[in-house]
């Protein structure tokens, strides 16, 4: 079975990107969200990366 990355429908805060990444790697979505915020504050490109990921990553039907 092939593992695919989708935006989450159940672990969704804004667009489901962090929840989908957490489901893909089988970790807690809160950890992914905290890492995303940390990198957004440190590197500054987190918001743009999130918007791009929300557009590119398909939603799980």
UniProtKB/TrEMBL annotation:
It is a single-pass membrane protein. Keywords: Cell membrane, Membrane, Transmembrane, Transmembrane helix. GO terms for cellular component: plasma membrane. This is Phage shock protein C (PspC) family protein. Residues 3-59 form the Phage shock protein PspC N-terminal domain. It comes from the Bacteria. Its main location: membrane. The chain crosses the membrane at residues 34-57. Pfam families: PspC. InterPro entries: Phageshock_PspC_N, PspC. It is found in: Cell membrane.
